[in-house]
Amino acid sequence: MAGATRYLPYYDDLLEALATPGCAFCLLQQRTAERYLDALLWESVNDPSLRREVSAARGFCRSHAWLLVRPGAALSAAILYKDVLLGAARTLQNASAQRPSLWQRLRTWLRRPNPQEDPVVRALAAQRTCPACTNARAVEQHLCATVGTAIQRSDEFLLRYRSSSGLCLDHFSTLTAALQPSRLRQPLWEAQSAVWQRLDTELAEFIRKNDHRFRGEAFGVERDAWERAIALTSGPQPAATSTRGGLTQSR
Ligand SMILES: [Zn+2]
Ligand SMILES: [Zn+2]
């Protein structure tokens, strides 16, 4: 069948990620963010429009910003964040120089002001989404589309999914909402339920072996079930810094 063999973007990556511990979507998004930042640090840092984008976002979000800490990236990070700081300083200067309107003064006088409505707070807030998050979101959409096509083509994806760590709750919900046609949801839910069931059994075993009556029993695969349960619901532990190398090692 021609449709079954036609190239499906990200499919091989997805299968490989499903064979790796942790949420496959989180892993692929992390890799995408690393590549995105590679390109930005080594090729686009002198692009004024890109720097304006980063500045308007008030820098990267917390999880992406710390991926900038990698060998050889210090100068590019310094150039980018100089713009971010300058942008914030200018915004503060402009916003603080503006006198509140009569309506704003009246509202402040009449009721307790909402800090989010404060013009200085509003001006200092990110004016756009973290560019690495925007990129990650686009990849997420591609992944969802690929899963939809893969499920329709063969049983391979769901079989691999069942024996994987499953998706974290966030990504499972995102995929559920995006999956088209909606009849594909049921087999996906069954696969995720099988993952949860397996982990639940391991958690029960971990708890049982912590009982003083069974202390003599050695721990098996359930040893880190509690950590996997955290990752499966709340997402993986944020990377403290990037594991990527410098210029010569960038892919
Ligand atoms: Zn995830
Ligand atoms: Zn981000």
Q: Report the β-strand fraction as a percent range.
A: under 5%
Quaternary arrangement of the chains shown? Answer: single chain
Q: State the distance separating the first and last CA atoms.
A: 34 Å
What is the element string, with H for helices and E for strands? HHHHHHHHHHHHH
pLDDT < 50 stretches: none
Radius of gyration: 24 Å
Number of domains: 1
Mean residue pLDDT: 88
Counting helices, strands and paired strands, the structural category is mainly alpha
Provide a short characterization of the protein structure:
With 251 residues, the protein is mostly helical.
Describe the protein:
It is a single chain. With 251 residues, this protein is mostly helical. It has one domain (8-249). It contains 13 helices and no strands. α2 (11-18) crosses α3. The longest helix is centred in the C-terminal third of the chain and has 25 residues, at 185-209. Residues 60-61, 64, 130, 132-133 line the site of one zinc ion. One zinc ion is lined by residues 60-61, 64, 130, 132-133.
